[in-house]
Design brief:
Elements: H1 3-12, H2 15-21, E1 23-26, H3 40-45, H4 49-52, E2 57-59, H5 64-77, E3 85-88, H6 101-105, H7 110-126, E4 131-132, H8 157-172, E5 183-189, H9 208-224, E6 229-232, E7 236-237, E8 240-241, H10 246-256, E9 262-264, H11 273-276, H12 282-292, E10 297-298, H13 302-312, H14 318-334, H15 347-353, H16 357-368, E11 372-376, E12 389-392, H17 417-425, E13 430-433, H18 441-448, H19 461-477, E14 481-487, H20 506-516, E15 521-527, H21 535-538, E16 543-546, H22 554-562, E17 626-633, E18 637-638, E19 644-652, E20 658-668, E21 679-688, E22 693-700, E23 707-708, E24 714-715, E25 719-726, E26 732-739
Parallel strand pairs: 1-2, 1-10, 2-3, 3-4, 4-5, 5-6, 6-9, 12-13, 12-14, 14-15, 15-16, 18-26
Antiparallel strand pairs: 7-8, 11-16, 17-19, 19-22, 20-21, 20-25, 23-24, 25-26
Helix pairs in contact: 1-14, 2-13, 7-8, 7-16, 8-9, 12-13, 16-22, 17-22, 19-20
This protein binds alpha-D-glucopyranose (GLC).
Alpha-D-glucopyranose (GLC) binds near residues 187, 266, 267 and 495.
Length: about 750
């Protein structure tokens, strides 16, 4: 529809109809047989029946049949035939589930992230999703926060920028109305990952300089790539909740970044400004949010019950309302919904494409690229096939390996590690024992009891633990090698899953401690959504493979890697701490005036643990052996006009082909403001044949040297720099150069 037509449509709309477009309700609202707004979830929304058929969008209803049914019924009752928008949380896959976003980022491959995203949105689009609440590009530094599992860029702003761009392009393509594409909603704007203490929804307070340097770039990259929607975050930013923060939403997002798309609040975040203490009631919350530029109120009744009155009283200029409504109508128009209210969904296509064989094969291939090999003593891995394997641990025969955002997944026929291992080496060579639960009853109920969830009771828990352990020891004694599958419960990471202790559960640690006494080779496979404190595990295991929550084909991918069909190539995008008390920890930190070197006493350190991370940012091993040499620089001096080139030789000094992520870091040695000891400025994931050597080059540009100073100017300052190239943020070769 032409823009003029949209304006005509807007002019025909009543005030109720305009307000309606800015309301999002839960999808099940329309799935009730007799949609009754006076009872159940609708009652809280206090929506009249007539108002219900004016709402602009619904949340988390998927499936061609349902969507067509709802759209038909809605349009039959909507006066101006303005179609509904269907929005959903397809975070790491729809029916076919891919590795969780932090894992995808650990591939350090734009292609892997792109392909996971493409298949996810093709499936979700076939099922009728118009807008996907992804990518989550919040920069994260504190592993106590459960939502680090969703961050595709981890602790680095550059990775965040790269993968934000990749995902927007993969979701939206050239035209969001085309088959296989959808609108992307980048989130959570902004700096949601910086909540104090790693506690979800908690306060965020930082200088504007830090915000611009670290937290803003990834959102900016998504907007530059054309993200159609952005979601405001639950947290405050410098004393004002993001959802009513005029500086953030009007000055930065609209004016400075030029964002013209739709702004949606996070779930009831507008109403929550009352809890924050910045709105005295729902009416003031509605006023502050619409004036800050929030277009859609997700799942609260604040706009529905107050906006009309605010406009009638003249407190909210109708023009402000019209701008929001027009942005929503424009998005619907871009999606082609006026011409085709069902989008690209149809049942035949849905049946054909969902969890298809090709998608599963993709998932298996991509999942293997996200694993990070953390330890491999004496080349324990890859395993030979003629071994008798004791498969032990609560993830040995468990399909709950999809992560916490897999609500649309098809769990049927997800294979467990046990099933795939038996297929691989024959069931006669697999000795299985559960070994332990993931959590004890008390720990599990700390999770389940929230929101009045059904708590569990484990009858004779201690006896069971003892029996599990004895069985595991028995099985292990008969084996050549132990494969231990342990990790976090999937409800331990994700939204509202902050933890004050990020170690593996005691019963799983006990299991490993007992198995370690047998002096057999142990390969530990780790299923988790966040960096954990791994010292006590790593020291008792010969090989340690981080698989995160690897998705539908995770078990197959794990077997492919541990038997060497695939050579692991993942690298960490978050530092793993020595202890929970070390959080937040990140590689691109400032040096301080008393860096902890040469074991001096009066230094910035903890007395009881080492100062460095246990595993550094960018770390990950391979079955190949990569050696770096011959770091060269094309000139010791760089100027505004002439960039310089860095080259390094990398050799795969092994008989196994593999991929290496060569990383480029820079340090500004002296500047007007303190600068990080290292900043990632480039990376290349390169394939090497056995014994192959390649020369890898990077260009250093002035842009890479710029930073936000105390006057909020973004510029480079002359002086000395270091450039580092290496296999992670710690193990690098370095040279100096000067900006003149
Ligand atoms: C949740 C999450 C957000 C999600 C939204 C809709 O609270 O914070 O990431 O997209 O609600 O489910």
């Amino acid at each position: 529809m032409k823009k003029e037509k949209l304006l005509d449509l807007l002019n025909q709309m009543t005030l109720e109809e305009k307000v309606g477009q800015l309301i999002q309700v839960a999808g099940e609202t329309f799935l009730m047989d007799d949609v009754d707004t006076t009872t159940g979830p609708l009652k809280d929304l206090n929506l009249s029946n007539e108002m219900l058929y004016n709402v602009g969008s619904i949340l988390n209803v998927v499936g061609s049949e349902k969507i067509r049914k709802i759209q038909d019924e809605y349009l039959s009752k909507n006066r101006l035939k303005i179609p509904l928008l269907f929005m959903a949380d397809v975070i790491n896959g729809y029916r076919t589930v891919f590795p969780i976003p932090i894992a995808q980022g650990c591939s350090w491959s734009q292609k892997v992230v792109h392909d996971c995203t493409r298949v996810s949105i093709k499936e979700a689009g076939a099922a009728g999703t118009n807008v996907n609440f992804s990518p989550m590009v919040d920069l994260v530094r504190d592993s106590r926060w459960g939502r680090v599992m969703e961050s595709v860029g981890g602790e680095d702003p550059y990775l965040g920028e790269v993968f934000a761009k990749t995902m927007i392009e993969a979701y939206q393509g050239e035209d969001i109305s085309k088959l296989g594409n959808a609108a992307a909603c980048v989130k959570h704007f902004a700096a949601y990952g910086a909540g104090e203490g790693g506690r979800d929804y908690n306060t965020v307070d930082m200088s504007e300089k830090e915000f611009r340097q670290y937290y803003l770039p990834a959102y900016q990259s998504a907007i530059r790539e054309g993200a159609e929607m952005i979601m405001t975050s639950f947290n405050t930013i410098n004393g004002i909740p993001a959802t009513v923060n005029q500086w953030l939403l009007r000055d930065v997002l609209r004016k400075e970044l030029g964002f013209q798309g739709v702004v949606i609040s996070d779930y009831s975040a507008i109403e929550e400004t009352i809890n924050h203490g910045v709105s005295k009631d729902k009416k003031e919350a509605a006023y502050k949010a619409i004036m800050a530029g929030v277009d859609i109120d997700m799942m609260s009744s604040v706009y529905a019950n107050n906006l009309k009155e605010l406009v009638e009283e003249g407190k909210v200029p109708e023009e402000v309302l019209n701008e929001s409504v027009l942005r929503v109508l424009t998005l619907k128009n871009k999606l082609g919904l006026f011409e085709n209210p069902y989008g690209n969904t149809d049942e035949e296509r849905e049946k054909k494409i969902l969890k298809s064989k090709e998608n599963l094969e993709e998932a298996r291939r991509l999942s293997a690229e996200t694993f990070v090999l953390l330890k491999n003593e004496k080349q324990t891995l890859p395993l030979e096939k003629n071994k008798k394997i004791a498969l032990i641990g609560p993830y040995g025969n468990n399909i709950a390996i999809l992560g916490s955002w897999s609500m649309f997944s098809d769990k049927s026929k997800i294979q467990t590690l046990k099933e795939v291992l038996e297929e691989k080496i024959g069931s006669e060579n697999v000795l299985y024992a559960k070994g332990s639960e993931i959590l004890r009853e008390k720990e599990m109920n700390q999770i389940l009891s929230a929101d009045g969830g059904n708590i569990i009771h484990i009858e004779n828990e201690e006896e069971k633990e003892k029996a599990y352990l004895e069985e595991a020891i028995e099985v292990a004694k008969q084996s050549d090698v132990i494969v231990l599958a342990i990790g976090e419960h999937y409800r331990q990471s994700g939204e509202a899953c902050s933890r004050a202790n990020i170690e593996i559960s005691q019963i799983q640690q006990n299991l490993l401690n007992e198995l370690a006494k047998l002096n057999k080779t142990i390969v530990t496979i780790l299923f988790n959504g966040r960096p954990l404190v791994l010292k006590d595990i790593a020291e008792k295991t010969d090989a340690l493979l981080e698989v995160w929550f690897p998705g539908t084909e995770g078990a197959n991918a794990i077997i492919d890697v541990i038997f060497g069909e695939v050579n692991p190539s993942g690298k960490l995008t978050m530092s793993f701490p020595q202890a929970t008390g070390q959080c937040p920890i990140y590689y691109n930190h400032y040096n301080t005036g008393r860096p902890h070197i040469n074991n001096i006493r009066f230094a910035s350190r903890y007395q009881d643990i080492p100062t460095d991370s246990y595993y550094p940012f960018g770390y990950g091993l391979s079955y190949s052996k990569f050696e770096y040499s011959d770091l060269k620089i094309s000139s010791k001096k760089i100027s505004q006009k002439a960039p310089i080139t860095i080259s390094v030789k990398v050799k795969n000094n092994s008989n196994l082909a593999g991929k290496e992520v060569i990383q480029l870091y820079i340090q500004d040695l002296v500047a007007s403001n303190v600068r990080p000891v290292k900043e990632l400025k480039g990376f290349k994931k390169v394939y090497f044949e056995a014994f192959e050597e390649k020369e890898i080059t990077f260009e250093i540009t002035i842009d890479m040297l710029k930073f936000w100073n105390e006057k909020l100017e973004y510029k480079a300052e002359s002086g000395e720099f270091k450039v580092f190239v290496g296999t992670n943020a710690r193990d690098t070769k370095e040279l100096k150069f000067e900006l003149i």
